[in-house]
Design a protein that fits this description.
Number of strands: 22
Shape: globular
Helix content: 25-40%
Number of domains: 4
Strand content: 15-25%
Largest sheet: 8 strands, mixed
Radius of gyration: 25 Å
CATH architecture of the largest domain: Sandwich
CATH class of the largest domain: Mainly Beta
Number of helices: 18
CATH topology of the largest domain: Immunoglobulin-like
């Protein structure tokens, strides 16, 4: 929540959340597939945080259609949509007859419809789904897209409980626990959900389509298209409960009741989205080898960092993602061994270096705390808050010792449970926790916090255990020595490597001078990379080939770009395809742009026009 010293610390909202705070929202929507819109109403319970001083409630909206407004059950005409202020949309100003006292509640009921300019929703035709039988809809509200579904205080600095009443001809999933209610028989059913843990607006989530569920653990299920259900169940059932146990031992028991995973259609723009109760995940993690489910460990970790304890604004996004990446790797260490945590961190370091290189070493978006005033948080999205944030926390762990840092972890997550905080509160909290430990307190007090928080570019590189990458580095060195050396590649080179080790191998090949086209083709043939069902592998091999000028990867690259919408793959592939042939990159994008999610489409457009972040 906003603090007295800084009541409006989120620059990316137009709402006056320093005067009013949403405490509960009821979302009543019909999903209208034919019209590609949601229609219904939202009811806000808003608490006054002033002594009758504020007679206006200002909410965020972006390209929504407002039908009517009621205040405490009475119709009001005293409201207006203010002129748009890009990229934040148009503020909805509702004027009250009089001010209300501190902590008093006003109920505001707003009739609303989404429009075709809604950036939070993607509508898929049956042809865009895996079994091609029914339409599909899903939401992606992070960072500031909830306002394009309904008027709200669209800031992570405000959390409230939710009720969802969603009418649809197809099964519905939402970021709450399902509630069974007797319904009259009709072609459309109303699905009811409750979220009793307060959440920020960006965790509001809906999906509807041809969705079936299967059990993957004692408190977990996977949901997806019926034709993909069995393979998704197999991919996730071995490790999900192990992951939950591992993180509960590090922090404290899981707070949300159920932990489920929705495997979305392939146009989903992210690896996963940590919507409460139901993680939304890309189908690219279903690689038929259980090698890509680190994403699930990451999204599960968000159930503590991000969802329970939340960054107060997107300028402090590392508090969500750095902590989550740190916890994810602690889970992987518990399940697979400590060298695996370091191996994952080495992969992350490469990703961090790529992002810094892309933005430029002095760029604002390479800082841990960014200045986003007047900016769209999506433009700053990259691996930097994840990996620079992780490396800061790993530095603190190394500085204090793992045993001491482990004592701080549950304290931190309890102190800010169901709250939002900024980086300065984090600093104060860890200093206060170790105040009675003279040695630890001195180490923390002497730490150059300002450099970590505000210096652009790469942080100091920590010492990682390289045991799992040394063999990979050796193999990449051998390939780079060709054709001059006597090295003879054979399939056995990679037989004992995990998919993640193969990823590191390909990333090493991408560094420095490109291969010749002949060597690129040889690699694909001997190791079978081009036909790999693991997109983490095939997409990197295609980048190697494009960089080499190997025409044999062009067709499979454009084919992959037409069937996956995850930005992690799509954006680098378009960049490399553009270097190979700008005309082909633009033509491929024009052909597939309606397949992509609006967020992905906008970011690729910026990349191809030379205006984008990572």
């Amino acid at each position: 929540m906003a603090t007295a010293s800084n009541p409006r610390r989120d620059p990316n909202t137009l709402s006056n959340y320093d005067s009013w705070v949403s405490t509960h929202v009821v979302a009543n929507f019909a999903i209208l597939f034919d019209e590609k819109k949601l229609a219904g109403n939202v009811v806000h319970k808003l608490k006054s945080t002033t002594d009758s001083e504020s007679t206006e409630i200002v909410l965020d909206t972006n390209n929504v259609k407002i039908g009517s407004v009621q205040i405490d059950g009475k119709s009001s005409s005293n409201w207006e949509l203010l002129p748009p202020l890009e990229p934040y949309g148009a503020a909805l100003k509702i004027v009250l007859d009089h001010g209300v006292g501190r902590n008093e509640i006003v109920t505001v009921d707003i009739a609303v419809e989404t429009t075709d300019r809604c950036t939070a929703l993607q509508w898929l035709t049956p042809a865009q789904t895996s079994n091609k039988k029914h339409p599909y809809m899903f939401s992606q509200c992070q960072a500031i897209h909830a306002r394009s579904i309904f008027p709200c205080q669209d800031t992570p600095d405000v959390k409230c409980t939710f009720d969802f009443n969603i009418k649809s001809p197809l099964p519905v999933i939402a970021s709450g626990l399902p509630i069974d209610k007797e319904e009259p028989q009709s072609s459309d059913k109303t699905y009811h959900f409750q979220q009793r843990v307060p959440i920020p607006s960006y965790l509001f989530a809906l999906a509807s389509g041809d969705i079936s569920e299967a059990t993957i653990g004692p408190r977990s299920a996977v949901a997806t298209s019926p034709d993909k259900l069995q393979e998704c169940q197999w991919e996730l059932e071995a490790d999900t409960e192990k992951f939950i146990h591992a993180i509960e031992a590090i922090v404290y028991p899981y707070a949300w009741g159920r932990y489920n995973v929705l495997i979305l259609p392939p146009s989903f723009p992210y690896g996963g989205m940590e919507n409460p109760i139901f993680t939304f995940a890309t189908p690219s993690i279903i690689s038929k080898d259980r090698e890509n489910i680190d994403v699930i460990a990451h999204e599960l970790a968000h159930s503590w960092s991000g969802n329970l304890v939340t960054n107060a604004s997107w300028e402090h996004f590392w508090l969500n993602e750095g902590w989550t990446t740190y916890l994810e790797r602690r889970v992987l260490a518990a399940v697979h061994g400590e060298p695996y945590r370091h191996f994952s961190a080495i992969i992350g370091w490469k990703s961090l270096a790529d992002s810094v290189e892309h933005f430029g070493h002095d760029h604002e978006f390479t800082k841990l705390i960014t200045d986003l005033k007047g900016k769209d948080p999506d433009d700053a999205f990259s691996s930097i808050p994840y990996e620079k944030g992780f490396n800061f926390l790993f530095h603190l762990e190394t500085l204090l010792g793992k045993h001491k840092f482990d004592q701080f972890i549950p304290h931190y997550f309890m102190a800010f449970k169901e709250k939002s905080l900024d980086s300065h509160e984090f600093k104060t909290t860890i200093l206060n926790f170790f105040q009675s430990d003279v040695e630890a307190y001195k180490l923390l007090n002497d730490l150059d916090w300002d450099t970590w928080f505000y210096a652009p570019g790469m942080p100091p590189k920590p010492h990682f255990d390289t045991s799992l990458v040394d063999v990979v580095y050796e193999l990449s060195k051998n390939w780079k020595s060709l054709p001059e050396s006597s090295f003879k590649p054979r399939p056995s080179d990679i037989e004992n490597l995990t998919a993640n080790q193969v990823v590191v191998f390909l990333e090493q090949i991408l560094l420095g001078n490109p291969l010749t086209p002949d060597l690129s083709r040889l690699m694909g043939q001997i190791y079978g990379f081009a036909s790999s069902e693991n997109i983490e592998v095939s997409n990197l091999y295609f980048q190697v080939g494009l960089k080499a000028g190997d025409e044999s990867v062009v067709e499979p690259t454009t084919e992959l770009l037409g069937r996956i919408g995850r930005m992690k793959f799509v954006r680098p592939l378009y960049r490399n395809l553009q270097r190979f042939s700008r005309a082909l990159a633009v033509d491929t994008f024009e052909k597939h742009k309606d397949f992509y999610h609006p967020i992905c489409r906008a970011m690729v457009e910026k990349d191809l026009l030379g205006k984008g972040g990572l």
